[in-house]
C-alpha cells in the first residue's frame, strides 16, 4: 500500500511512468476503496493500462515477517506476490517490510531452478558509474555455492540495469593474493574461477577498490553486504553533517556555501540511489523488486521502469540458464593441476 | 626504519615529542650509520632520552611476512619486537609491513594470558567523538571466544586512548532483535551478555548506528572489520572527489569553494586519523603499535604519545586482569533461565 508516503505516492509514480506510451500495464494491489478515488483524482480512472487488485489487509513495518505472512493472507504484499506466482503479473514491486517480502517471496514462489537461497542486490554509485552489491542481506550465512549463484544473479542483473555487456565480477576479500581472506572467500574464489566464461570473474577485490572503477558486481555474504550498505549510508550522512557544521561556522564560509550550492545539490543527486529505484530479490522463482520504504514518486517510478527492463530483457530466463551451466561445470570433477612439461 | 617517508621523519617526530619534558625515553631501532647523523642534525645527539639500537636489515612492504621474519633476523622490526620481549622497551611502534608486524609479534611475543588470537584496533571519527573498531583485520575467521576477548581488549584500549571511563561496547550485526545476524554474532552476543559488568556491553548495533554517538567500541570479526575500514576510506575519497569535480564545474561554484575553503580544510582535519596515530595489535604479550606506512612526523608523534599513554595507564595489566575474570565467568556453567514465580 505504498510505503512511508502512502498509496497516493504510488499513484503519482504510475502517472509518471504511464506518460511513456511503451510502458507495460500496471496493477495496483491494495484497498480498492482507497485506490479508486486516488486513480480518479489522478485522471487514471479509465486508463486501460491501470487496474486494481483488491487486498483488504496491510503488513506493516512493525509486523514480524513470518507471523504477518501467516495471519494476513489478504494483505497487499501476499496478494502481489501471488500475482507473480500465478503468472497474472510478471514482476512485483513492494516498498513494504523487507523481511516479510523476502520470506513471503521465498515461501510462496520457491527458488529458481538450481538456486538454493535468495539474494538482495543493490545498485551503488562509484567513480565513473555504478556497481551491484550482492548480497545486501538476504542470506547472512551462505555456503560457497550460494555466493557462486549470487555472482551469476548479480552479473545478469548488471547487464539489465546498468546496461553493461560483460560486467566485471569481483569477490570482496581482505587481500588479493591467493590464500588471503577466510574459508568462505577462498572456496568461493576457487569455484568462481572454474565458471569463468559464464561470468567475467576478475578475482578478489579489496575494500579500497570498491568505489573505484574496478568491477561492476561485488559479491559478498549477506552479513557483510548488509553491514557495508548500512555503514556507507551512515558514513555519508556523517560527512555531510560535518561539512554542514563547518560551512556554518562563520559568515565567510556561509557566503561560499551559498555560491557553491549547485555543487552540493549535484553531489547529493549523484549519491542518490533513486535513479535505480529498487533492490531486486534475486534467485526466487519470479521477479520481485524491493523499493525503499521512504521512496517518493520518482524513486517508485524508477523502480517501475527497472521492473519493465527486467521483463523485456528476460532477466529470469538468462539467469536460470547461466545457473544451470555453472552447476553442470561445478558438478564435473575439479581439474587437476599438472606441472607444465 | 620509518615507513614511506624514511627515518628522517621518525627523528622529526621524536624531536616533536621530546619537547614535552615528561615524555619517556625513546629508542630508535635501525641502521646506526643512518640514524646517528639524523639525530645530530636534529640536535638530539647528546639527548639522554634518545638512544639507538642498531639493526642492519629492513623488512620491506613487498616482503612476504613469514619468509622475511625467518631470513631477516637482524631487521629493525624483529629487533624492535625483541626489545619488548626482553623488557628493554615497554612498547614498540612500527610503520612497516603490517603482516610481518602481526606475525612477528605473535610468534616472538606469544599471546597474553587467556587470549588465543591477536586483534588490530583502529580509532575512527564519528559524530561527537571517536570509536574503536576491533578487529581491523588480524583474525579473519574468529570463534565467538575471540570476539569476546576483542570486546575486552577494545574496551580497555578505549579507556586509555579515548579517555572514556566506561566505554559502551557494541557487537556489529544486521539487526538488533534476538536471533538476527549469523551464528558467530548470536553466540558472541550470548557470551558478551554473560560478561556484562566486566565491560559495558550495550548489545548488537547495526551499520547505520556506527557513525552516530551510540557506542565507543565496535566489535566485529577481522574480515568484516578490514572490509569496513577499507571501504570507508574508499567511500570518503569518492565523495571528496565528486565534490571537487562539482565545485570546479563553473566559476560561481569555484568562487564559493574559495570562500568556504576553511570548511573543507576543517572537514579534512576532523576526518584525519593522525591524531590517534596508530592501530595497536592487542592480545599479544607486550605492547605493539602499528602506525600507517605513510605516517608523517605528526602522525608518528601521535603514535609515540599514544604509546606513552598505553604504558602509563597500564593497559596491559588491566586488560589481562579483565580477560582472566571473563574467562572464569564463561567457564562456569551457563545460567539456566527460570520463569519468574
From TrEMBL, chains A, B:
**What are this entry's molecular-function GO terms?**
phosphate:acyl-[acyl carrier protein] acyltransferase activity
Q: Does the keyword rRNA processing apply?
A: no
Q: Which reaction does it catalyse?
A: a fatty acyl-[ACP] + phosphate = an acyl phosphate + holo-[ACP]
Q: Which domain of life is it from?
A: Bacteria
Give the pathway annotation. Answer: Lipid metabolism; phospholipid metabolism
Q: Which Pfam families match?
A: FA_synthesis
SUPFAM superfamilies given in the database record: Isocitrate/Isopropylmalate dehydrogenase-like
Q: According to the UniProt entry, what is the EC number of this protein?
A: 2.3.1.274
Gene3D superfamilies given in the database record: Isopropylmalate Dehydrogenase
Q: Record's Gene Ontology CC terms?
A: cytoplasm
Q: How does it assemble?
A: Homodimer. Probably interacts with PlsY.
Q: Which NCBIfam families match?
A: plsX
- Protein name, as recorded: Phosphate acyltransferase
Q: Which organism is it from?
A: Lacunisphaera limnophila
Q: Where is the organism placed in the taxonomic lineage, from the top? A: Bacteria, Pseudomonadati, Verrucomicrobiota, Opitutia, Opitutales
Amino acid at each position: 500500500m505504498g510505503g512511508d508516503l502512502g498509496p497516493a505516492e504510488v499513484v503519482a509514480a504510475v502517472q509518471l511512468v504511464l506518460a511513456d506510451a511503451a510502458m507495460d500495464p500496471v496493477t495496483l494491489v491494495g484497498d480498492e476503496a482507497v485506490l479508486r478515488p486516488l486513480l480518479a483524482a489522478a485522471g487514471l480512472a479509465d486508463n486501460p493500462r491501470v487496474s486494481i487488485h483488491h487486498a483488504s489487509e496491510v503488513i506493516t513495518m512493525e509486523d514480524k515477517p513470518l507471523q504477518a505472512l501467516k495471519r494476513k493472507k489478504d494483505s497487499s504484499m501476499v496478494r502481489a506476490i501471488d500475482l507473480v506466482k500465478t503468472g497474472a503479473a510478471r514482476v512485483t514491486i513492494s516498498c513494504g517490510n523487507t523481511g516479510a517480502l523476502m520470506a513471503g517471496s521465498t515461501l510462496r514462489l520457491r527458488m529458481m531452478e538450481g538456486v538454493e537461497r535468495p539474494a538482495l542486490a543493490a545498485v551503488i554509485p562509484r567513480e565513473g558509474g555504478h556497481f551491484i552489491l550482492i548480497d545486501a542481506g538476504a542470506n547472512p550465512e551462505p555456503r560457497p555455492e550460494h555466493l557462486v549463484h549470487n555472482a551469476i544473479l548479480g552479473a545478469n542483473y548488471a547487464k539489465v540495469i546498468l546496461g553493461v555487456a560483460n560486467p566485471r565480477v569481483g569477490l570482496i576479500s581482505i587481500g588479493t593474493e591467493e590464500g588471503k581472506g577466510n574459508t568462505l572467500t577462498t572456496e568461493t574464489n576457487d569455484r568462481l574461477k572454474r565458471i569463468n566464461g559464464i561470468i567475467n570473474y576478475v578475482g578478489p577485490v579489496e575494500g579500497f577498490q570498491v568505489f573505484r572503477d574496478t568491477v561492476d558486481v561485488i559479491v559478498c555474504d549477506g552479513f557483510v553486504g548488509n553491514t557495508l550498505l548500512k555503514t556507507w549510508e551512515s558514513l555519508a550522512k556523517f560527512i555531510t553533517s560535518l561539512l554542514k557544521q563547518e560551512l556554518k561556522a562563520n559568515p565567510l564560509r556561509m557566503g561560499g556555501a551559498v555560491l557553491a550550492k549547485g555543487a552540493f545539490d549535484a553531489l547529493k543527486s549523484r549519491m542518490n540511489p533513486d535513479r535505480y529505484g529498487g533492490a531486486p530479490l534475486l534467485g526466487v522463482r519470479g521477479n520481485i523488486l524491493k523499493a525503499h520504504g521512504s521512496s517518493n514518486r520518482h524513486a517508485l517510478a524508477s523502480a517501475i521502469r527497472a521492473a519493465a527492463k527486467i521483463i523485456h530483457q528476460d532477466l529470469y530466463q538468462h539467469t536460470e540458464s547461466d545457473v544451470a551451466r555453472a552447476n553442470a561445470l561445478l558438478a564435473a570433477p575439479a581439474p587437476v593441476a599438472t606441472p607444465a612439461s
